[in-house]
Amino acid sequence: MNQSVPKLWNRNFTILTLGSVVSMMGNTIAGFAISLLVLEYTESTMLYTLYIVCYNLPKLVMPVLAGPYLDAFSRRKAIYVLDYISSGIYLGVFLLLSAGLFSYVPFLFICILIGAIDSVYLVAYDSLYPTLVDPSHFRKAYSISSVLGTLSTMVAPVVVFFYDKIGSAAPLFACNAVLFFLAATMETQIKANETHLRPAERTRFSLTQYKADFQDGLSYIRSQPGLMVITMYFFLNSLSNGPENLVLPYFKSPAGLMATGGLGVKAYVFVQGGAMLGRFIGGSMHYRFKLPAEKKFSIALFVYIAITFIHCTYLLLPSVAMMCVFMFFLGLLGVTSYNIRISSTQSYVPNSHRARFNGTFQMLVNLGAIGGQLIAGALGEFIPIKPLFIAMGSLNLVGIFFTMVRKGKYVKPIYNMDV
User: Fold this and answer.
1) Closest among 240, 253, 250 to 375, alpha carbons compared
2) How far is Cα of residue 183 from the mean position of the Cα atoms in its chain?
3) What are residue 16's phi and psi, to 5 degrees?
4) What is the distance between the alpha carbons of residues 397 and 412, in angstroms, rounded to a whole number?
5) 281 CA to centre of own chain
6) Contact partners, residue 237, CB within 8 Å, separation at least 6
7) Residues 109-140: pLDDT tens digits?
8) What is the pLDDT of residues 190-202, one digit of tens each?
9) 10 three-class SS
10) Considering only CA atoms, which of 149, 192, 206, 228 is closest in space to residue 351?
11) Are 246 and 373 in contact (CB under 8 A)?
12) What is the number of structural domains in the chain?
């Protein structure tokens, strides 16, 4: 007699999905609103860059620090408490701006706080998400997650439109406060069976126990060569993607205007739109069709190489239309990479260690991303962007060889899980 498989769209999954949509929209609005605010008041790209650095700095520390805590205490509570705190912060920013009390330095500290909250929230969310889904539905669940993430970015043009019409970022922060409050309120209704929780007598925070949990998490990751290889590859991948931050300035430059027939920033929007469409269609395809389990590692290896080739060469193409096509396939393949990696690792890592692995993974990936941006920014002063893309893309190919090819025997059992 066949056992019935729990349905994907149960109460908890539906609530978390709706809450995450609202949160992702809020994060998109917040990112653009703060960016526009800083540029409006400072009119300085250097001060704007400093804001970005301050926002990203907590991502190098907070995920790995949050992991041991979230493997011992309620991830569900962490999610809605952080969203309520975010709502309060954005309400405070709205009130300050309405009173004409903007000051750059205090807002830098607010950016640091928001970056810390976002990085801890992501560890909690990634660790709770798979506990609300039956393993047989991981592929579909993460396909939905990737599609919703893509759709949430479509709020950005709306933000820019309203900012141009209103001429002030203050109402955007008020909207954000409401969105995060709604998300948190929905998330309080999740009834999760958090099996990782400690017995009642050990629920108090203890620094000694925290240090023991931290060391235990590191020992677990060190004992799993497959997870270490996956993490190291994505660190190198993030590092090699550093030049991506130079693409918008390139399209605005005389060289970019010449290459795009004068389209400039419009060409950038079209090209990024191609990638967005690819991610949307790719996520929809993964929801409907299942990759053969025994071939997922081979598919992932092909995808990593193909993505690197596209990333290195799309700016060399002679027309914006061809760039859009290449970026469409980049988005399509990117969703495939994401789906294989996250569904496999979240199924493989035991729930008792999931937050510590996710925290370590995110910390190293963020470290690679920030390092890559700094390297690309420094080299971009002397090297044209196209050779820079090829050079750093070649670094990624080297990373694929030394991780996924040479150490593939450790990754294959994880990626080829039937999830």
Assistant:
1) 240
2) 18
3) -65, -40
4) 19
5) 19
6) 304, 368, 396, 399
7) 888 898 899 889 989 998 898 888 888 888 88
8) 887 777 776 653 4
9) coil
10) 192
11) no
12) 2
Q: What is the pLDDT of residue 205?
A: 62
Q: Do 346 and 394 belong together in one domain?
A: yes
pLDDT of residue 91: 93
Determine the Cα–Cα distance for residues 176 and 110; give it in Å rounded to an integer: 15
Residue whose structure tokens are 């809020």: 26
The residue out of 170, 205, 240 marking a domain boundary is 205
Give the model confidence (pLDDT) of 317-341 as tens digits: 988 899 999 999 999 999 999 999 9
Q: How crowded is the C-beta side of 96, counted as CA atoms within 13 Å?
A: 15
Angle, CA 281 vertex, CA 364 and CA 250 arms, to 5°: 60
* Domain match, 242 and 114 both: no
Q: Note the Cα 115 to chain centre separation in Å.
A: 13
Q: How far apart are CA 81 and CA 251, in angstroms?
A: 41
Residue 352 C-beta-side C-alpha neighbours within 13 Å: 4
The pLDDT tens digits of the residues spanning 227-275 come to: 999 999 999 999 999 888 778 778 877 888 888 777 777 788 788 888 8
pLDDT confidence bin for 34, thresholds 50/70/90:
confident
pLDDT of 343 > 80? The answer is yes
Q: Which amino acid would we find at residue 213?
A: D
C-alpha triplet 304, 273, 19: angle, nearest 5°: 85
Q: Are 313 and 178 in the same domain?
A: no
Quote the mean pLDDT of the chain: 85
pLDDT for 156 equals: 67
Residue 391 lies in domain: 214-419
Query: Given CA atoms 62, 68, 70, 74 in this order, what sign does their dihedral have?
Result: negative
Task: Let me know whether 258 and 374 are in one domain.
Answer: yes
Residue 294 has pLDDT above 60, yes or no: yes
Alpha carbons within 13 angstroms on the beta-carbon side of residue 100 total 0
Place of tokens 């929905």: 186
Q: State the Cα angle at 113 between 338 and 39, rounded to 5°.
A: 85
My answer on whether 175 and 221 are in the same domain is no
Query: Does 406 lie in the same domain as 296?
Result: yes
Both tokens assigned to 58: 């907590």
